[in-house]
Amino acid sequence: MTTKAREQQSFGENPVDVRETDHYTDEYVKGFVDKWDELIDWDSRAKSEGTFFIDKLRELGVKKVLDVAAGTGFHSVRLLEAGFEVVSADGSPQMLYKAFENARRRGHVLRTVQADWRWLNRDVHGEYDAIICLGNSFTHLFAEHDRRKALAEFYAMLKHDGVLMLDQRNYDGILDNGYDSKHQYYYCGDNVSVAPVHVDEGLARFRYQFPDESEYFLNMFPLRKDYTRKLMKDVGFQQIDTFGDFQQTYKDQDPDFYIHVASKA
Ligand code: SAM
Fold first, then answer.
1. Which residue among 92, 114, 141 is best mutated to probe the pocket of ligand 1, counting the most ligand atoms within 8 A of its Cβ?
2. Nearest CA to ligand 1 atom 16
3. What percent of the chain has pLDDT over 70?
4. pTM exceeds cut of 0.90
């Protein structure tokens, strides 16, 4: 990388006013990215997630996967190790750098591309059987036209019968009933505290506190489940199955996360 990695997050005078799609690259600064794997402890995460995505992808006969929110590489590496062909994209160079290092340490050379979802087809080439956008990533898009554009770019990169797997926090539960994270499906690091500090219909601002007393924030758009499903339908996906915390049946308040599996055919 030619640019020096930024160390500090910057949300300005009034952090709850920061509601911009472009801000995500300023939020994943080096210190936060370095701690990200503490936050999402790979071993516990793999254990709680089980083989949900691997099983689903195999069931669907998927071979070629594009991970559009590679982050530090957790899913890309798991899928590589399960025998899938994987290309790993992310808009954040910090994240991709970390993903590449993580994969190298496990004996893989990750095929990485820096790409923002809104211009994905410009920077990533080829057609894929599946696209994954996991770890509550889609929530970083603040404008509806950005969400539609990103989904349209995903749709265009899929084969005629391809699938998109996209997950999100259960924001309906948080908006309607407050935050209650009894489940620890994704954020399994033991000593890391994750909680919202501000929630309204246009913003969910979360704080991540680490054992060394450092803290970082993410400003996200609180996607309601049915709204996300509708956007996927609008873009052209034919069938959308929504799972709660990796289970097919869920009560609306219970899951921390939803996983949408959207098919083109
Ligand atoms: N999927 C990883 C995981 O589960 O650990 C990372 C999740 S992290 C919450 C969200 C990721 O989405 C970050 O790596 C961020 O850089 C990426 N991201 C957010 N908005 C993006 C955009 N518009 N284009 C490309 N990547 C984006």
1. 92
2. 92
3. 89
4. yes
